[in-house]
């Protein structure tokens, strides 16, 4: 990438020549020869880099960021995996229905009652074991969110506004059945915010209207990685229905009804799929 049109923020008549990577630097990060002559960025001259290395710097920063995201993702996956194991173990051992109980032999019935009587201590211990670390983890996560200080970052506001305009424009086009144009605009929005759930969902809905169910399902799956949400589940269910993956479609619609049992779209879907 050529950066020959990056201007100096102090001397806009000049092209910039360097950028400064000194952590403690308070001058503008991008600067020109005139700035240098005026003795800015003198604190640490070894952190000066030619401006044409900016793309390299951005790429390296992306890799560091990606590593952190992956670490967070994997940590939570591990927690979720153990959560499932813990829940299924507790369920297997202690959630015995009357019907199950009635179908057991007398020895097993005695064992069940014994297990349930002794369950109180174990349940108390599990709760105690988990309470403390979980509160601590939640606090640490909140600390990290605070440390990012998003409220101080003004370039995000600029991006947000641009993104929001494109999103609204695409939604209007979608509502007036102009799907090709809607798709073009939502792609621009997604290039600004690639992980925005609403934008991914809208793109999915547009692709459904274009009968591109595989492509649409991919958008909803991306959105679901960000956040388990009703609109993506509904959209994905519809894709699976149209792709004749009926079982998966039913499962997703039931998941929606588990969250919101009045959900019209999921109710309609279940009626179509089952009856
Ligand atoms: Zn300058
Ligand atoms: Zn500097």
TrEMBL record:
Keywords, ordered alphabetically: Repeat, TPR repeat
Annotated protein name in UniProt: Tetratricopeptide repeat protein
PANTHER family on file: CELLULOSE SYNTHASE OPERON PROTEIN C, TPR REPEAT-CONTAINING PROTEIN MJ0263
Entry-linked InterPro entries: TPR_rpt, Ycf3/AcsC/BcsC/TPR_MFPF
Any Pfam family: TPR_19
Species classification: Eukaryota, Sar, Alveolata, Ciliophora, Intramacronucleata
Residue stretches of each TPR repeat: 163-196
Superkingdom field: Eukaryota
């Amino acid at each position: 990438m050529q950066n020959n049109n990056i201007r100096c923020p102090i001397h806009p008549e000049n092209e910039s020549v360097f950028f400064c990577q000194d952590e403690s630097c308070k001058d503008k990060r991008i600067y020109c020869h005139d700035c240098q002559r005026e003795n800015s960025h003198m604190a640490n001259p070894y952190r000066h880099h030619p401006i044409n290395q900016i793309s390299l710097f951005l790429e390296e920063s992306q890799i560091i960021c990606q590593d952190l995201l992956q670490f967070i993702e994997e940590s939570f996956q591990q927690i979720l995996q153990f959560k499932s194991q813990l829940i299924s173990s507790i369920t297997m051992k202690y959630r015995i229905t009357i019907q199950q109980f009635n179908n057991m032999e007398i020895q097993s019935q005695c064992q069940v009652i014994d297990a349930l009587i002794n369950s109180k201590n174990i349940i108390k211990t599990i709760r105690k074991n988990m309470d403390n670390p979980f509160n601590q983890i939640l606090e640490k996560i909140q600390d990290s969110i605070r440390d990012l200080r998003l409220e101080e970052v003004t370039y995000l506001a600029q991006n947000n506004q641009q993104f929001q305009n494109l999103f609204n424009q695409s939604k209007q086009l979608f509502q007036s059945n102009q799907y090709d144009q809607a798709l073009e605009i939502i792609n621009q929005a997604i290039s600004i915010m690639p992980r925005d759930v609403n934008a991914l969902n809208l793109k999915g809905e547009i692709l459904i209207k274009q009968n591109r169910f595989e492509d649409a399902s991919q958008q909803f799956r991306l959105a679901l990685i960000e956040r388990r949400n009703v609109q993506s589940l509904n959209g994905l269910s519809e894709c699976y229905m149209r792709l004749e993956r009926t079982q998966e479609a039913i499962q997703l619609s039931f998941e929606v009804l588990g969250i919101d049992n009045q959900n019209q779209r999921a109710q309609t879907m279940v009626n179509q799929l089952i009856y």
